[in-house]
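Researcher: Please translate sequence to structure tokens.
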Amino acid sequence: MPTRIPDVEIAIQDVDGLGVALAVGADRVELCSALGVGGLTPSIGIIESTVETAAAAGKPGFVQVLVRPRPGGFVYSSAEIDTTVRDIRAARHAGVGGVVVGALTADNRVDVAATRAFIDAAEGITVTFHRAIDAGGDPMAALDALIELGVDRVLTSGGYERSLDGRDVLAALATRSAGRLQIMAGGGVSVESIVALRAAGVDAVHLSAKRAVSTAGPTGPGGGLAFFDVTDADVAAAAVAAARSTLEP
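Model: Translation complete:
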């Protein structure tokens, strides 16, 4: 039996990355900043620019935006939840196709109240629950809670550092979800691992397809790192080809 042909979502940080994703035929992007710390909420300027560029290319809804107020864990204060709600509203008003969020309670369960507030702020655009699920203790219970809340998609590695190592859990999640929400494999996804992840029955794969390049000039003391990440067109194109290949694992 042929394996599912999953969507390809590429994590990007700028308009140039969006251009790469559009050119290689990706299904959508997750826009964020600070990929080096797992991603944070991007500026409203970048959100507006990417949304406008995608719309001009005939791809409304192409941009999903990560809304995460800080690096570190996923247990948030009331002020951080309020900030997240405000950022979701701003992203929605800018025309994004969806938001990517996640929050846990102190005992590593889905923070139902916070997630419900995020969904309410999204007002009908797509809501993805990110890899906070991988920091929880029971992925199946988390999945059930997210289905009940009405989340559209969950990004997960199956609780492992690499999605490939968590493919048995991903397969179990895909079976349990039974199409009620999308299971998207993310975390250490490489071009080489995509065919095997397809066999797990996931609905989508997520990768950054990034490479580091040197800065255009000296940074100096306090100027930051001497390199930054860009979206690699060759890796992104290979990922899309692997997802749509007719080859079986």
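Researcher: Any highlights?
Model: DSSP finds eight helices and ten strands in the chain.
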